[in-house]
Amino acid sequence: MKRILIADSGSTKTDWAVGALRFRTQGINPVHQGEADILRILQEELLPQVMASGPVDAIRFFGSGVRPDLEMPMQHLLQRVFPDVHAIEAKSDLLGAARALCGQGEGLACILGTGANSCLYDGERIVKNTPPLGYILGDEGSGAVLGKLFLNALYKNRLHESAQADFEVFSGLKMPQVIDRVYRQPQANRWLASLSEYIHGQLHHDEVRRLVTGNFRDFIRHNVNPYGRRDLPLSAVGSIAFFFREQLEEAADEEGYAVGKILRSPIDGLVEMEELG
Prior knowledge:
277 residues, 19% strand, globular, five-stranded mixed sheet
């Protein structure tokens, strides 16, 4: 039986699987990371784990930032690290999410993690996609945008009275340090998304809950509504969808959609699809 290494890679982490075995490395995104950084992750974090489990026959890599023009460069990087593997595929994380969520059926497949994306999937390929545009120009519904919206509301005094003091105790940061972290430090999107855990703990405040629900409604209105398919269930992968499922369902219902499958990670669904052939 072929041993196929499958990857689901986002901006924050990459989940890898070979059959029942699971590995994890930091995220790989060829848009935001250079060749040297990606090779370092593959060689130092992934290769020792894979080699300890035995050789692989094929690689299926589904990753954030793997646009059509970056598929071959990503394949070449994987080939450099695994020179004896000749069947290597690199595709977008959105296609991976669609396969995991919808299998061979039609559906609306979404990613709601550090970043956000969506598509109309026909059971084999993506037939429509609204460009997410990243967390500065778009990415509504994502953890990065949720963190941005929370900080905006926090420092413009649109949250409860003790919100700012509570957050500063939690984070150890005051506004100047927050500004520095967002505008001067690398990977601001990851840091903004990391605030989602704190935000989840604040859902008992109505204004925070409305902020989360509003983020999801913006995602649906700007990204999913253009497909014109309210007859299909809205399914999603990612930590934001998984941990804020109640707020996602509320937003979807308000926009006229039924919520289908919600997965924290698509890796198990991708392994299942591979095993089914």
